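Extended Data, record MYND-type domain-containing protein
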Amino acid sequence: MSRQDVLRALGAPEYVVNEPLPPGPGGFQMESFGAFPCRCNECILSSMVEEMGLDIDDDDVGEQGQAGSSALPRQNTWASASTSASAAETGASGRRAGDSGSRIEEVKEEEGGMEGTLQCAACRLKDKGKVRLCTGCRKVAYCSRECQVKDWKSHKSTCKPKKPEAESAKAASTATSTSVPASASTDASNEPVVVTPPIGKCARCGWDKNFDLEFCEACRRAKYCSQDCEDADKETHRAFCEMERKRIAQEKTENAAAAEREVHVPPEAMDHCSQCGSEKQDSWKLYFWKTHKAFCGETDRIEISSFYPLLACLIDISHDHILKPIHKAFTLTVMNDPTPGSNPMEFSDGWEAVPVLLGLPTRRAQRPVPIDRSWWPAAANSAILGKLAARIRREGFFLPILTAVSLALLSEMYTTTSAADSSQHRLRLRYRTMPISDFGICAGSARVVNQDKLGYLDMRTLSELHGQDPNDHYWLYFRTARGEEVLLDCAMFTFNLNMLIFARPYGITSDTFVPAFFQEREMRQNAPALHMERKRVSMLRSSQMQQVAANSARGFVPEDEDRVAAFMESLAGRAVTGVERELAMALAKDHTRVIREALQEEQWKQYPEDVQIAIAGDPGELDNWEERCDVWWDNLQKDKRKKKQKARKGRASGV
């Protein structure tokens, strides 16, 4: 029996059947982590049957349809692809995921009346200790997994879920179409059923295609993995598409009444008179103030060192947005001990990081992600378990997140203005005594050792996945009119930089602490450099982003999405994905509302001047504390001497 026959017997679609096998043990050395998994067809089939039934709750058959309707995000392995595809096809036929991969379940005592009549459907064995019910239909029994696999072809067509009447009625009221499970609505008349397309998956087959999907051009809500799926879903999608187009048209009509905003860009430097160009100090007081005073208005300067925690909170809650894909590590079980201090290993492509070994049992992809002992059974304690989960949760997608946060700041703060006869105040950022004249995003690398990086290995297929890359790093910069800079980096927590801020005063997250590394004057002068900048792009002075900010009150238009994508691509040096584009625009809308509320209600006046900072320690981190402090101090002095030598050479060469 070939692998293709095995997959077809399970009902997998052709793209899964024809997908090549993942790399075998020869492509990756596993001796240090235990035995190789068996790769014969029988074991592969057995593991697939087990994996595809693990989302079913044996104690409550009525919940099985709901569990099966949540297809896991498709990874680039044929085993997990078949799981997602089977779950998608389940929704298409109105059955649950267990129909294409049921498990066998031990007969419970309360079913005692059936015990005398049960026998294995394949070998006809009658044994109370061995016979188990099929969890798909609970009508047929088997004595072993081998018998279940042998009988699956004939049993597949009759494996129907057995549900209580109440659950059956509930399921009948929510069953809607031949598409993947989706919410729908209809009335008593013969109006067409409106099927809401799923988020992040093909509206027809349920495949996420590694999140490389195309929108329906009419409504920009439904997504498809191919033109064939889009054509096949036209009739089902027609009612929702028409409703969404009407909603968009109505929204555009309402937004058209709002005034277009104007972005007010401050002077880049305060080194000359804005009226006459004179570089003499106080010259503006003599020649300019009499005419300028009449329309100057009032300006409220917001200190960035007390305002940045709000931005850090926005960045942190962005990782829980529904459009950010759930990390693969949360859909499987952690099998080893990847705590800080573990030895890194070299992956097959040369990537070095602490390995996180992932295996069965699988876990349902859901939000919020449930974190408990079942996810990492070998965790030493709950604190270590939570720390690893927090590091993984905050991995990736920092480019669209930072773009959305900085765009929201531009849209809400730098569109405010004032005049002499107006009660409104313009709002601007400052750092200590100097106004902020520019802010944007830097791209580069961060200084990270391999012991603080994570890499993931799927033990089912030996497929590899890199964690966050310190060489593809992004952070915010704020530059004063005098040329001094402060930096805000919220992407270092996954690299085990455990600097946190107290988040409760800012009221937008349920977490007590959120990661934030704010590098201001003292930190810059007394700590080794953390970043190596390759490129920066100004958000405040970008004409394209100013146009996006001008449209923010009236509603973003499709051209704005192209402008935002071009901004991100100029930083990343690559084409951004559809997920990054969609996530950036959705977050920009959300964060704009939060910052608008904070500014209009003057919440920023209640923010503490001194931000409370905490350090999350790791086990053994305080061992040999004095000796480690001495080493740190010596390295700091060496770094400061290097900076001074570099500065002297620059002055000598006239640079």
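Summary. The radius of gyration is 29 Å.
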